Amino acid sequence: MTSQAYLSELFSLDGRVAVVTGGSSGIGRAIAGALARAGASVVIVARKEAQLAATVGELTAEGCRAAWVSGDLSTRDGVRTAAEEAAGVFGEPDILVNCAGVNLRPPMGELGEEVWDTTMAVNLEAPYLLGQRFGPGMAERGFGRIIHITSQQAHRAFVQSGAYGVSKGALESLARSQAEAWSPHGVTCNTLVPGFVMTPLNERLSSDAEKVAALAARTLVGRNGLAEDFAGAAVFLAGRASAYVTGQSIFVDGGFSVH
Ligand SMILES: NC(=O)c1ccc[n+]([C@@H]2O[C@H](COP(=O)([O-])OP(=O)(O)OC[C@H]3O[C@@H](n4cnc5c(N)ncnc54)[C@H](OP(=O)(O)O)[C@@H]3O)[C@@H](O)[C@H]2O)c1
């Protein structure tokens, strides 16, 4: 067997269909690109059409199979509509990546119901509803991969964790519940846990050079994360090689969390 054939057996996503929420920006964009370059047909879901089209344009120009669906994941109806549209493009997905997220972090005493509701809707309910829509079909077909993107705040209070931390902690619990239900049927459910990654999500913090340097110094690798750092872990969790990895939280954080 050639090394190419061996690597394909472990990691190729040829013939797989993936849905990536938040696939038009930051970490989600890098993950969508990685899955598509590894062979999957990828549908990305977010709201802003220009960014969706630009991301898909970049991938199709490289010869990848990719498409986009514009949808608002902050309402249950929005999630349901987006899910049906996404499944209508290349068929029912084998891989679901829940990366869309909002990062609204007022001080705890000022945390109102609106921020709470939006945070729970996008960060937790949308992944739950998409899991309910696609998980049973994956289990029936005997193969599936569900990947959630959580946060340090799922594990510790840190820089006004507020509702954001609650939503991410619950998302890791959701991954374990899904793993319990569907792993016996070939569907693994895991989370990737970023540290501090320079993306539009944390523009305010990433424009503060002193804070950025202080965060980089807290890692073991000595720098903050880049969206591209998630490519390899996502391909691994999406493919055959990770069949015996389920219910896990995998930190892609340069060692931020271990000291
Ligand atoms: N960057 C970090 O340091 C960091 C750290 C820990 C965890 N994370 C997590 O990683 C994930 C990705 O973050 P990122 O930093 O890559 O952020 P980003 O660049 O801001 O991307 C967020 C994505 O989510 C989409 N989105 C937001 N609200 C949506 C809604 N209501 N409906 C549909 N799509 C929506 C956005 O597209 P539209 O605006 O067009 O809808 C965009 O594609 C998030 O879950 C975040 O919590 C990030």
- Major sheet strand order: 3-2-1-4-5-6-7
CATH superfamily: NAD(P)-binding Rossmann-like Domain
CATH topology: Rossmann fold
Let me know the average pLDDT: 97
Separation, N- and C-terminal Cα atoms: 42 Å
Q: Regarding CATH, which class?
A: Alpha Beta
The chain-level structural class is alpha/beta
Order of helices and strands: HEHEHEHEHEHEHHHE
Low-confidence stretches: none
Quick one: biggest sheet?
Answer: 7 strands, parallel
Oligomer: single chain
Bound molecules: NADP nicotinamide-adenine-dinucleotide phosphate
Q: How much helix is in the residues? A: 40-55%
**Strand content range:** 5-15%
CATH architecture assignment = 3-Layer(aba) Sandwich
Morphology call: globular
Note the total helix count.
Answer: 9
| The number of domains | 1
Taking all Cα atoms into account, the compactness measure Rg is: 18 Å
Query: What is the number of strand segments?
Result: 7
Summarize the structure in words.
There is one protein chain. Helices cover 46% and strands 15% of the residues. With 259 residues, the chain is of the alpha/beta class. It has one domain (3-197, 228-252): 3-Layer(aba) Sandwich (Rossmann fold), CATH 3.40.50.720. The protein has a seven-stranded parallel β-sheet with strand order 3-2-1-4-5-6-7, with helices on both faces. α2 crosses α9 (231-238), α4 (76-90) runs parallel beside α5 (113-141) and α5 packs parallel to α6. The mean pLDDT is 97. NADP nicotinamide-adenine-dinucleotide phosphate (NAP) binds at residues 22, 24-28, 46-48, 51, 72-74, 99-103, 122, 149, 151, 194, 196-197, 199-202.
